[in-house]
Write a structure and sequence with these properties.
329 residues, alpha/beta, eight-stranded parallel β-sheet, two-stranded antiparallel sheet, 15 helices, binds flavin mononucleotide
């Protein structure tokens, strides 16, 4: 399947694995790239630029296919060493960067001068248009369904994607709620050039996270996510658990008086315990509504092959039956 995204990134299938804190290590990124998609290492999961450089080297040893690095610009009390991380990306010869969070404009010249393609992840048409206007090569359009930070507009992908298609000239992928061949075909029909998946890729054999996390994803339904930190305008979609219930209770009782300090124990620095040790109630962790469509833990290659086979069958058989040309064939 050729789309503007497969052409732009030199990949076989229009499927991207979005950056995920404490999930996007070299093992997962390499598995996705080896299976013909675009794997992405999560830059800030590495505690220093030197460690990111090591992770890039590890990934390169596991795949000779293109892979990317995610750089997330989120409100942080202590700003990470972004120039250092960018130097590690440039020196590591990475050719694709997924930016997310704030506007990446400040960092674009260095990336573009090195011939790096930048895909900016955003949750609104206006931010996607901004990304286009400052020179990003592509956008990843994240609907309200998505795991992680869906923004504050609450526009689901059935509206967001055709709106993006109407406005953007750069290629974009649909992100949030994507799980299978149906998602891919729907994303293409709504005007996207491929899809980005987060939660679905966690429940794969190669995802280097604790089995408890994978089992929780398989067990959960589409009713099991919650939005936290809305009063702080830093909304995050997470899987419900004991820590999330505590956060929501504090949000209810403190109302507009809530500050980040009130919930820091539940939302900051919790990922290693959850993802690596499998202590699922240690804090709030991102998870999309798509969790309701995830019922197994396949290898990344089996997952991607299945998605592509299902997508081709949908287009060539099911959809073709609805047209006179298809019926004649
Ligand atoms: C556990 C987890 C951690 C994530 N961490 C990040 C991150 O550090 N940076 C980022 O840009 N997006 C992050 N995301 C968002 C994903 O890259 C992707 O946009 C999102 O998961 C898509 O929605 P889906 O989960 O419905 O597929 C995270 C998502 C999950 C589920």
């Amino acid at each position: 399947m050729k789309t503007r995204i497969t052409e732009l990134f030199g990949i076989e299938h229009p499927i991207i694995q979005g950056g995920m804190h404490y999930v996007g290590f070299a093992e997962l990124a390499a598995a996705v790239s080896n299976a013909g998609g675009l794997g992405i290492i999560t830059g800030l999961t590495q505690p220093s630029p030197e460690r990111l450089a090591d992770e890039i080297r590890r990934c390169r040893a596991m795949t000779d296919k293109p892979f990317g690095v995610n750089l997330t610009f989120l409100p942080a009390l202590m700003q990470p060493d972004y120039p250092g991380y960018i130097r590690a990306i440039l020196d590591g010869g990475v050719k694709i960067v997924e930016t997310a969070g704030n506007n990446p404009q400040r960092w674009l010249p260095a990336l573009r001068d090195a011939g790096i393609k930048v895909i900016h992840k955003c949750t609104s048409v206006r931010h996607a248009l901004k990304a286009q206007s400052i020179g990003c090569d592509a956008a990843s359009v994240d609907g309200f369904e998505c795991g992680g930070h869906p923004g504050e507009d609450d526009i689901p992908n059935f509206i967001l994607l055709p709106r993006a298609a109407d406005e953007l000239t750069i290629p974009f992928v649909a992100s949030g709620g994507m799980a299978d061949g149906r998602s891919l075909v729907a994303a293409l029909a709504l005007g996207a050039d491929g899809m980005n998946m987060g939660t679905r890729f966690i429940a794969t054999r190669e995802a280097p996270v604790h089995d408890n996390v994978k089992r929780a994803i398989v067990a959960a339904t589409e009713l099991d996510t919650r939005l936290v930190m809305r009063p702080l305008r830093n909304t995050e979609r997470v899987l419900k658990n004991a820590a999330v219930e505590r956060v929501l209770e504090k949000e209810r009782t403190l109302g507009p008086k809530l500050t980040f300090a009130d919930i820091i124990g539940e939302v900051a620095g919790v990922y290693p315990r959850i993802m690596l040790e499998g202590d699922l109630d240690a804090g709030a962790w991102s998870c999309g509504m798509v969790v309701g469509l995830i019922h197994d833990i396949p290898t990344v290659k089996d997952l991607i092959d299945r998605i592509m086979a299902e997508a081709h069958a949908l287009i060539d058989e099911r959809l073709a039956r609805f047209t006179s040309a298809g019926r004649a064939g």
